[in-house]
């Protein structure tokens, strides 16, 4: 794994975080949430994610199986990350479009068929 340290947040700056994440394992998903939002995602263990500010500005959205906590800024509406689990371990899905210094158009994300799940 080629993890690297990044800073990120929402559009207006109310939500601010830092994380270690491997953006080379990015995905795109065609589910009813990810596709229209245009997410390019990478996942990292929860202990490698730190919300620095904005917890009081986050609004939660749950859908489908209600297993992923989609959190978006109540001011600008941007979802920069979501909380979930993988094999029983807390994980964070990072919206790579929200990381400083990352141009997702330069990545080669793997497509995931979330619409069929």
TrEMBL record:
Per UniProt, the keywords (alphabetical) are:
Metal-binding, Zinc
Indicate the segments forming the CENP-V/GFA domain, all copies: 6-113
Question: Which branch of life, at top level?
Answer: Bacteria
Q: Which InterPro entries match?
A: CENP-V-like, CENP-V/GFA, Mss4-like_sf
Family matches, as Pfam families:
GFA
Spell out the family assignment given in the record's similarity comment: Belongs to the Gfa family.
- PANTHER family to which the protein is assigned, alphabetical: CENP-V_GFA DOMAIN-CONTAINING PROTEIN, CENTROMERE PROTEIN V
Name of the protein described by the UniProt record: GFA family protein
What does the record give as the organism's lineage? Bacteria, Pseudomonadati, Pseudomonadota, Gammaproteobacteria, Cellvibrionales
């Amino acid at each position: 794994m080629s993890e690297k340290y990044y800073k990120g947040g929402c559009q207006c700056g109310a939500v601010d975080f830092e994380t270690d994440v491997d953006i080379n394992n990015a995905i795109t998903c065609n589910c009813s949430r990810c596709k229209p939002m245009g997410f390019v995602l990478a996942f990292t263990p929860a202990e490698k994610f730190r919300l620095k500010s904005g917890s009081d500005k986050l609004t939660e959205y749950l859908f489908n199986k209600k297993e992923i906590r989609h959190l978006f800024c109540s001011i600008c509406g941007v979802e920069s990350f979501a909380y979930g689990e993988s094999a029983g371990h807390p994980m964070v899905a990072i919206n790579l479009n929200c990381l400083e210094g990352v141009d997702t158009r330069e990545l080669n994300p793997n497509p995931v068929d979330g619409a069929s799940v």
